[in-house]
Amino acid sequence: MNKIIAYPRIPALEERKMEFLGEDVAVVNQEPYKKWFIKALPSRLEIVRRLILRKELDYSYESLYECFSFLKEHLVKRETTEEENLKLKEELPVYYRGSFEPQKYTILSPTYSIAYDIGIYWGEIMIRKFNKQWSIYEDEEAYKYGYPIIDLESKRHNVVFCPIWVMSITATKIAKRNIGLSVFKGFVETWDENFLNA
Q1: Residue-wise pLDDT tens digits, 16-68
Q2: How far is CA 54 from CA 8, 36, 51, 76, in A?
Q3: What angle do CA 36, 63, 132 make, to 5 degrees?
Q4: Is residue 64 part of a domain?
Q5: What is the C-alpha to C-alpha distance for residues 191 and 157, in angstroms, rounded to an integer?
Q6: Pick from 134-138, 141-145, 162-166: least confident
Q7: Is 120 exposed, middle or buried, given 0-12, 13-18 or 19+ CB atoms closer than 10 A?
Q8: Is the model's pLDDT at 91 over the cut of 90?
Q9: Which domain of life does the UniProt lineage start with (predicted)?
Q10: Is residue 6 part of a domain?
Q11: Cβ neighbours around 105 below 10 Å, total
Q12: What three-state secondary structure class fits 146?
């Protein structure tokens, strides 16, 4: 197991959203949340600069890959108990419970805070590269509801990029299967193509 490092945590609501713990974490009032998120961006990016990369941000994919390596090196997990899996299943909407797969590992702090900040950095890379902006996903029926997103504004299909959600999935994949940089580069290339082809 990796050693737990001192790292500034994200708010508890954000952490619960990243853990997929149920509908009780949805953002009900979008506008105050968006204002909070936009206001928090500079401080979270400063954390990426100071603690993850330890150099000035250049908003390149290479620096994003360095962030992935940091996440992988500092990801902290433990085995999930049977009781915790039962609780996770009970917190799901009834229609999801039949497809629930027990979680082998529980991700511990500060992993989601690190993933959250890397997601923000990835989002900022895409915003700069493709001249986009942040918004908050408003479709209450979708799994991305309440997450900060970047709308590709495609005329052919409705595609939104939710880098924080993608990074929480990435952290889960590292915990489960110890995915490597080549897999993460594949995620980045796929999203780059999605933006180019929007």
Answers
A1: 666 653 444 455 567 778 888 999 999 999 999 999 999 999 999 999 999 99
A2: 15, 26, 6, 21
A3: 45
A4: yes
A5: 14
A6: 141-145
A7: buried
A8: no
A9: Bacteria
A10: no
A11: 15
A12: coil
Candidate from 103-107, 113-117, 127-131 with smallest mean pLDDT: 103-107
> What is the total count of domains within the chain?
1
Domain limits for position 62: 12-196
User: Has residue 126 been placed in a domain?
Assistant: yes
Residue-level pLDDT at 157: 66
State the amino acid at position 27 in one-letter form. V
| Separation of alpha carbons 30 and 53, rounded Å | 31
As a three-state string, the secondary structure of 14-27 is HHHHHCCCCHHHCC
Alpha helix segments (H runs only) across the chain? 12-18, 30-47, 61-74, 82-91, 94-97, 111-130, 163-177, 181-196
Q: Mean pLDDT across the stretch 2-17?
A: 74
Q: Which residues of 17-51 are buried (b: 16+ CB within 10 A; e: fewer)?
A: bbbbeeeebebeeeeebeeebeebeeebbebbeeb
CA angle, 13 then 164 then 130, to 5°: 140
- Does residue 122 form part of some domain? yes
Q: CA dihedral defined by 6, 87, 149, 188, rounded to 10 degrees?
A: 70
Q: What would the two tokens of residue 115 be?
A: 């993933």
- Centre a 10 Å sphere on the Cβ of residue 58 and count the other Cβ atoms it contains: 9
